Amino acid sequence: MQYKRTILRNGLRLITIPMPSFESATVMVMVGAGSRYERAQNNGISHFLEHMAFKGTTKRPTAQDIAALIDGIGGEFNAFTSKEVTGYFVKASKTHVELCLDVLSDMLQHSKLDIKEIEKERGVILEEINLYEDTPSRKIGDVYENLLYGDTPMGWDIAGRKEVIKAITREDFVNYMQGLYSADNITVVVAGGIKVEEVEELVSKYFERMSNFDIVRYTPLVENQVKPDLYIKHKKTEQVHIGVGFRTVPIGSTKRHALSVLSSILGGGMSSRLFSEVREKRGLAYYVRTGSENYQDAGNLVSTAGLDPKRVEEGIEVIINEYSKFAKGVAKITKDELVKAKEYLKGHLVLELEDSRFVAAFYAQAELLENKIETPEDLLKGIDKVTLDQVEAVAKKYFVSKGLNLAIIGNFEDRQRFEKLLKL
Fold first, then answer.
1. Within 13 Å and on the Cβ side, how many CA atoms surround 26?
2. Which of 30, 158, 333, 401 is most buried, by the most CB atoms less than 10 A from its CB?
3. Residues 193 and 83 both lie in one domain
4. Does 20 map to a domain?
């Protein structure tokens, strides 16, 4: 997959990815702005601002004006916020790329941030927070990272705290954008059935007037875990949700691919070790999976599961026992298992690459967060090169008792019953 990287005079970065067989195209604008750039007084503003972008501009005064325009071309539009980036995109027929660029540039540069709309959307955000609180299978990942990163922006929920959301003002939005929405902190990616030269002219037309300024920097994480840690979020549920894992490596680490393969072996599908041990052999959970996450200066690997409250200790013990096998070098990974794990990762990536929206997000995030762009082909090769020795080495390095972490969502008061389980 070929791409071209261009830098506008104001520092904004453009990546074009022609996909000749596609009749559609995705235009994505990604900003190096996420919840880790927030302060306690504005926690949740990154996500709140993402919502407000669609609520009207000077040129298109209402949310209905924007929605009707995109609906009128049969397009899709949305946005997302993570801890390190915020993305806005429109996907439509390749004949409407200019309109997509027009709308997105208008949203970023001329958003009205109408006070009445802020008040209405405040209620929407609060209900979204309630939704996540009532969906513990989705919430457990946030609870686990709160355990890892504590009372820091990296440990806070992306959606924010209710009391903060209720107090955010229009001025807060303006100040936040003036701290992070600089042209050189923005990447525009256009992927699909496009002509590169035409796109370059259009992006210059719509984005080159954006200003360039010094942005707010995030505070790097300081990690120094010296013993196993536990966090219980008290909630009455029919099912206990847990996250068990370890701290690992940042996104730029050469060990990242080996950790991805390791996570695939542990909980990357219905034939993975944890799925087999926890669900198939013992019937302890409906879902159990493992994922590897990498940020600019930190990373983690975690296995999550929804367990029967009466058998929660057994479920935790089984998961930790699987970790222990890798930590002690007795996991006995077979060559076939290694191949299967790598093909699982590669196969999922190949399927995702059939969507220009995924392709756009892939390149945008690489441009903003990594020292160089790792293309999908590079990623596939990186996974392919992972050896059995490398997988075993990262397991021994990072699966250590003092680095073990357990997060729980459930109705429990007794910490000791779980603390005694935290050893390899």
1. 27
2. 30
3. yes
4. yes
Does 297 share its domain with 344? yes
* Separation between Cα atoms, residue 198 and residue 202, nearest integer Å: 6
% of the chain at pLDDT higher than 90: 99
Residues 6+ apart with CB under 8 A from 380: 346, 349, 350
**Neighbour tally for 171: CB within 10 Å:** 9
In single-letter form, the type of residue at position 351 comes to: L
> For the domain that residue 264 is a member of, what is the CATH number?
3.30.830.10
d(CA 203, CA 378): 27
Q: How many CB atoms lie within 10 A of CB 89?
A: 23
Q: Which structural domain, as residue segments, surrounds residue 37?
A: 4-207
What is the set of active-site residues? 50
Ordered strands of the 240-247 beta sheet: 229-234, 405-410, 240-247, 299-307, 285-294
Q: Is the dihedral of CA 348, 351, 353, 355 positive or negative?
A: negative
Q: Which two tokens stand for residue 13?
A: 């970065």
In DSSP notation, 29-75 reads EEES--GGG--GGGTTHHHHHHHHTTS-BSSS-SHHHHHHHHHTTT-
Average pLDDT over every residue of 252-279: 97
- Integer Cα distance of 2 and 231 in angstroms: 45
Domain shared by 195 and 256, yes or no: no
pLDDT in tens, 3-26: 999 999 999 999 999 999 999 999
3-state DSSP assignment of residue 111: strand
Rounded-to-integer distance, Cα 314 and Cα 311, Å: 5
Assess if residue 213 is contained within a domain. Answer: no
pLDDT band of 40, cuts 50, 70, 90: very high
Residues in the chain: 424
What rounded mean pLDDT belongs to the chain? 97
pLDDT value at residue 81: 98
Helix (H, G, I), strand (E, B) or coil at 362: helix
Residue 371: the pLDDT is 83
The secondary structure of 300-319 as a DSSP string is EEEEEEEE-GGGHHHHHHHH
Across the range 279-283, mean pLDDT stands at 96
Residue 394's pLDDT band (cuts 50, 70, 90): very high
For 183-196, what is the mean pLDDT? Answer: 98
Whole-angstrom Cα distance, residue 249 to residue 295? 8
Q: Kindly state whether residues 94 and 189 are assigned to the same domain.
A: yes
Supply the pLDDT for residue 15. Answer: 98
Closest CA to 342 of 252, 263, 255: 263
Q: Which of 207, 238, 265 corresponds to the end of one domain?
A: 207
